[in-house]
Each structure stands twice: as C-alpha cells, then as structure tokens.
Amino acid sequence: MKAAVIQKPTVSILMYHQVGRFAAPKNHRAVYCDIRRFKTQMSYLKYSGHQVISMDDAYKGLFLGKPLPSRPVVLTFDDGYQNFMEYAWPVLQKHGYPAMVYLISERIGDTASWFEEGKNDKLMDTDTIRQLRRQGVDFGSHTRSHCRLSQLSAQKQRQEIFDSKTELEDLLEEKITAFCYPFGDYTPLTRDLVQEAGYNHALTCIRGAANTAFNQFEIPRKAISYGDSLPGFFWKLEIKNARKDKSRHNPAHVINGCYDRK
After folding, report:
1. Residue 74 per-residue DSSP state
2. Which of the ends of the chain has fewer CB neighbours closer than 10 A, N or C?
3. What is the dihedral of CA 170, 20, 32, 37, to 10 degrees?
4. Can you tell me the distance from the alpha carbon of 88 to that of 37, in angstroms, rounded to the nearest whole number?
5. Region for residue 243 given its phi and psi (left: phi exceeds 0; alpha: psi -120 to 50; beta: otherwise)
6. CA 205: distance to chain centroid?
C-alpha cells in the first residue's frame, strides 16, 4: 500500500514596504499601504482563521519538515522605513503578529534615495531597530545599499551580500539568517552568493505562494499595494497562489519588479 502524501498548507508571504498616511501615489504603489487598509487587512487575517507565523517558522515548515499551522501567513516589510514603528508595529502588537523587516545596512537612519518619489522617506535609525528587536521584531538583510545586484560584478555583489550581514550582526549582536533581493533583482550567481554567505533563506518578488519556491533562496511572495481594497487583499491572499515569473523568457536574469504600479 502506498503511503499517503501529506500536503503542506499554502503559505502566503505578504510583502509590504511603508505603512502610514500618504497622498495617493501615481507610481510605485507597492511601496505604500494606507494605515486604515492595513488595520482592516490585519483584522481580516484574525477573523478568517489565518495563522501569522515568523519567516523562520515558514522556512522550517517548507524546507525542514517542521509542521505548519493551517492557513499560515508571513508578514514582511522591505527597506526598514521609520513609519513601521509608528503605524505598523502597534497594529501587529495588538494582534500578537510577528514580522520580518529587511534592512539596508549602509542606509540606516538615512532616506530612501534609490527612487525619486521616496528620496525623502525616512529609514529606521539604530535606536529604533534595537528597540524593535527587543520587542520581538525580526530583521534580515536587504544588502548594503539597495542596489540592483544583477548589474554588479561578482566582487561587488559579494560585498553587498556579505558585508550587510556582518554589519547587521554587529548592530544587533546576533546572527542574521534572512535575506531579501532589492527590486527582486538577482541571478543564479547572486543566489549562490547568498547561500555561501550563510543565510538560511531569501525572498524574491516572484508572485505566488511560497510553496512554489524551487529552493529556499528563491521564495515567492505576494505584494500588497496601495490600491488593494479588502476584496483585492482577499483575492491575493486566498486565490493568487500560482507562481508568476515576469521574466520567464530569461531565466538566468530574474527581475520581478517590487515597485510595479499594480
């Protein structure tokens, strides 16, 4: 008799950037989430029976055989914006939800100068990061400078990936095992360098359920955008689980556009 195949629950890793109050953005809508919608989304997770788990628990469940709860969700926040402390974190604390924030080690306390609309948007300073870590927020690396890694030499990629890990470990006095590709931009070489550096897992901007990952260093997510109403949030969370690679005709150079308009 054949042994039964145990199906893993669908894991949705949600991608946020900034949470707060914003004028309606014309571009880069995936960088912004209005606090009122964020509150509604977090309440929906609670009342719909989803279980919010840490990124590390998702990794262990997907790749190391650890049991996963039913309807698991992971909340990730790219870039480490200061408004996370004021707006997102109080909501997450209210619900008891863990969160993973990906930091740019060279730009701590600086601004998001890599795109024009966000050049004055404040990033977390050292004191904020340490306070949030004491309160239970998890942190990972988003490189040193928020660069497009595929456009750098192997040596420069190594510096961005390895040095950011060292700098964040010095800041937090603990191991950093989580990585996230800026702009969702990476190559097979980039992926291999992330593994060599000693990270346990890495997130992309490939759309879809995390279960569709080919390996632990190319894990898909679902981007939550400024325009997502509650029905739109429901659709992404519950329905849009199929993997969607934007560069399917160029598999050696993956660019998946975290900052697209949708």
Report:
1. E
2. N
3. 120
4. 11
5. beta
6. 8
33 located within any domain? yes
Query: In this structure, is residue 51 part of a structural domain?
Result: yes
Q: Count how many Cα atoms sit within 13 Å of the Cα of residue 144 in the half-sphere of its side chain.
A: 14
Structural domain includes residue 156: no
Which range of residues forms the domain containing residue 71? 12-138+205-250
Q: How far is CA 28 from CA 115, 203, 256, 261, in A?
A: 9, 19, 13, 5
Residue found by looking up tokens 């470990």 in the block: 169
Domain-embedded: residue 216: yes
Residue 190: name the closest of 139, 250, 147, 140 by CA.
Answer: 147
Euclidean distance between CA atoms 207 and 49, whole angstroms: 23
Residue 158, pLDDT score: 98
Token code pair at residue 98:
């863990």
What the block records as the tokens of 261 is: 């308009």
User: What pLDDT, in 10s, does the model give residues 103-146?
Assistant: 999 999 999 988 777 778 999 999 999 999 999 999 999 999 99
User: pLDDT value at position 30?
Assistant: 87
Q: How many Å apart are CA 147 and CA 169, to the nearest integer?
A: 20
The structural domain count of the chain equals 1
* CATH number of the CATH domain containing 59: 3.20.20.370
pLDDT tens digits along 87-114: 999 999 999 999 999 999 999 999 998 8
- Which segments of 26-145 are extended strands (E)? 32-34, 51-52, 72-79, 100-103, 138-141
Q: What's the token pair of residue 238? A: 């519950």
